[in-house]
Amino acid sequence: MNTRGLRSQLKDSVPVTGMGQQVGAYGVQDTLRSGFSSVKNELLPSHALELSEKNFQLNQDKMNFSNLRNIQGLHAPRKLQMEYRAARQIQRLPFLQSSHLALDTLKGNDESISFEDILNDPSQSEMVGEPHIMMEYKLGLM
Amino acid sequence: MATLSVCQPQLGGFSFENCKRNAVLEAEVTKLGCNIPSARKTGTTICGVVFKDGIVLGADTRATEGMIVADKNCSKIHYISPNIYCCGAGTAADTEMTTQIISSNLELHSLSTSRLPRVATANRMLKQMLFRYQGHIGAALVLGGVDCNGPHLYSIYPHGSTDKLPYVTMGSGSLAAMAVFEDRYKQDMEEEDAKRLVRDAIAAGIFNDLGSGSNIDLCVITKGRVDYLRPHDMANKKGVRCVYEHEALPHQTGNYKYKQGTTGVLTKSVIKLDLEVVEETVQTMDTS
Fold first, then answer.
1. Rg (chain B; Cα; Å)
2. Could you give the 3-state DSSP secondary structure of residue B93?
3. Alpha helix (H) residue ranges in A14-114
4. How far apart are CA B94 and CA B198, in angstroms?
5. At A49, is the secondary structure helix, strand, or coil?
6. Beta bridge partners of B155
7. SS3 (DSSP) at B42
8. Which family, according to UniProt (chain A) (predicted)?
9. Is the CB of residue A140 less than 8 Å from the CB of residue A94?
10. How far is residue B110's CA from residue B121's CA, in Å, rounded to a whole number?
11. What's the CA dihedral at B120, B122, B124, B126 to 10 degrees?
12. How are beta strands B68-71 and B139-147 bridged, if at all?
């Protein structure tokens, strides 16, 4: 799960700048997709863990790849990332629930259970995205 | 408009959507002078000791909600794997969920390695998870078990630090229990001595700490055998005044009912009520 957190690997972690505005195509606030903007919502996170949890998986992956590169050479993380990219494409249309089975097996998530599997299961969520908008967003038409 | 903003795929796990709303609600409610309901904690005494052949874990059985006893007989010794058990202090839901998640993870791990899980594995999984959440998960644990390398005992704090020691105590009654341990612990004790020591330590916590009470649960883990003694000792029975060492028998609480005839009767009048049957219906019961 967690490899050793060497300090030298931390330089690759995702910088924590804040919640960030959703910037649309022309560099202005994307009201259509992310709603009205509120400065208070974006300056401070509502909970101490919000930022660290948002970037947790990214940071873990970066640290692991960095370690792997130092131990085995550049080819090892490259090959793995290629496989991840291929597995990530095996999914249904964006508004439907996909199981991500191949991706989970590659990442090793099929052998562990954590809060992501118990709380807030996306397949049980009460909100569903508008299919046309989500398809257009995915294809980059919007 | 709300559905248009759902363009990113949703992730599972903790959702912080309501945190700002909760903070505002809490501020409003404290201005009015009321209290928001608090989480149920296990203000507790838990402890563990390593003896010659294995581990003895002990816990009291009271769960508190603020100043009220929420559960008089809750079970604080949780199952992690057939050879590893874990006592939990702190927020009751947090200890319950954390131990269940780690138990599931250990089961998957042991299925994939086809070996009996080690206590060090459970310890590392717990400390990594608790550190990830920076102490917001309030679970203070005493983890003990016997694996291929012998008996091991760890104490795990909510922020993720762990200690590997021959005897540990946690919870609000930990100082009382630790006093008993520091006085009477010896290396390589026999099983009966270890059980008596843990029982006395938990009893010290029960009688000297408001957050601990009711009965004493013990769990004895040795190689190939687990004795889950629940309850091992009912230190506080309802209706019985507590036993002191110098008294031979526990005595019942006094009977405060008056005998018939204590109050003199001056007059007596009997009025008969005439009740007549108005309606009679029969409903057949479904006993299938």
1. 26
2. helix
3. 31-34, 39-43, 50-54, 56-72, 75-88, 101-107
4. 25
5. coil
6. B142, B163
7. strand
8. Belongs to the POMP/UMP1 family.
9. no
10. 10
11. -150
12. unpaired
Residue (of B62, B39, B40, B57) closest to B209 by Cα position: B62
Residue B211 in contact with residue B43, Cβ under 8 Å? yes
Tokens of B106: 């250990």
Going from the C-alpha of A137 to that of each of A33, A140, B2, the distances in angstroms are: 10, 5, 15
Q: Are B103 and B109 in contact (CB under 8 A)?
A: no
Tell me the count of A-B CB pairs closer than 8 A. 92
CB contact under 8 A, A117 and B20: no
CA distance, residue A74 to nearest chain B CA (Å): 28
Q: Is the ipTM of this complex over 0.90?
A: no
Residue range B212-261, pLDDT digits in tens: 888 999 999 999 899 998 888 777 777 666 555 444 555 666 778 888 88
Structure token pair of residue B78: 């949780």
* pLDDT (0 to 100) of residue B193: 94
End-to-end CA separation in angstroms for chain A: 38
Answer whether B3 sits within 8 Å of A129, measured CB to CB. Answer: yes
Cβ of A53 within 8 Å of Cβ of B20? The answer is no
Each residue's pLDDT tens digit, A17-66: 555 556 666 666 666 666 666 766 666 777 888 888 888 888 999 999 99
Q: Which residue bears the tokens 């928001």?
A: B36
Cβ proximity of B218 and B229 under 8 Å: yes
Which pLDDT band, with edges at 50, 70 and 90, does A121 fall under? confident
CA distance, residue B26 to nearest chain A CA (Å):
14
Structure tokens at A5: 């957190």
With beta carbons less than 8 A apart as the criterion, state whether A136 and A142 touch. Answer: yes
